[in-house]
Amino acid sequence: DAKTTQPPSMDCAEGRAANLPCNHSTISGNEYVYWYRQIHSQGPQYIIHGLKNNETNEMASLIITEDRKSSTLILPHATLRDTAVYYCIAHTGANNLFFGTGTRLTVIP
Amino acid sequence: EADIYQTPRYLVIGTGKKITLECSQTMGHDKMYWYQQDPGMELHLIHYSYGVNSTEKGDLSSESTVSRIRTEHFPLTLESARPSHTSQYLCASTLGGYNSPLHFGNGTRLTVT
């Protein structure tokens, strides 16, 4: 599974869009990009995933570049409850899933 | 909503005790995982299972053991707890394959005194 690189921390004003970047330059053709978030000490929560096309669900949007070497998770209207650590993972569903340190997003009132 | 449950949520235990952390899921997922996470740190995979009677060690060396006798149940056991085992333990499951997300339990926070 490809390793991913994320900024360690970001701030976002409440009500504004939060754009969280992720680099996965060694991603292979069959690896999906997954995003999870972890609030306080709870278990990580699945947000969204995609292979090539941009994806949107009720929580977020995922923009994947055409070369698939990077992606951006967009929270369109960040709230205080979106403060969390966000993890970007590239994997094939194989057994060893590497989470990394993620991005700590702080939503500021 | 994912149905994966971990018990206990919190556990404080003395050194040398044997403990079992429980993890159960009702989704019929074949693949299950145990992660260890210290506060503010990344998740480390310690064990995983492809299905019944299958268990493998993960990246992080761990003195714990696991079993998978039933699809829905993936308990983790520490034969003799030590203060170095103090951590949060997270269980997860997935159908497997490229297009299946992980579902996590809320974890067990273990403190060994």
Defining key terms:
heterodimer, A: 109 residues, mainly beta, five-stranded mixed β-sheet, four-stranded antiparallel β-sheet, 46% strand, B: 113 residues, seven-stranded mixed β-sheet, 45% strand
Task: Profile the largest sheet of chain B.
Answer: 7 strands, mixed
Distance between the termini of chain B: 35 Å
Low-confidence regions of chain B: none
Order of secondary-structure elements of chain B: EEEEEEEEEEE
Q: What is the N-to-C succession of helices and strands of chain A?
A: EEEEEEEEE
The count of helical stretches of chain A stands at 0
Overall outline of chain B: globular
Radius of gyration of chain B: 13 Å
Give the overall average pLDDT of chain A: 91
Gyration radius over CA of chain A: 13 Å
The portion of residues forming beta strands of chain B comes to over 45%
> Strands of the biggest beta sheet of chain A: in what spatial order?
1-9-8-3-4
Structure in words:
The complex is a heterodimer of chains A (109) and B (113). With 109 residues, chain A is mainly beta. Chain A contains no helices and nine strands. In chain A, the strands form two sheets. In chain A, strands 1-9-8-3-4 form a five-stranded mixed β-sheet, with no helix packed on it. In chain A, strands 2-7-6-5 form a four-stranded antiparallel β-sheet, with no helix packed on it. In chain A, a hairpin with a 4-residue loop joins strand 5 (55-56) and strand 6. The radius of gyration of chain A is 13 Å and the shape is globular. The mean pLDDT of chain A is 91. Chain B is mainly beta and 113 residues long. Chain B has strands spanning 4-7, 10-13, 19-25, 31-37, 43-49, 56-57, 65-66, 76-78, 87-94, 103-104, 108-112. In chain B, the strands form two sheets. In chain B, strands 2, 4, 5, 6, 9, 10 and 11 form a seven-stranded mixed β-sheet that branches. A four-stranded antiparallel β-sheet of chain B has the order 1-3-8-7, with no helix packed on it.
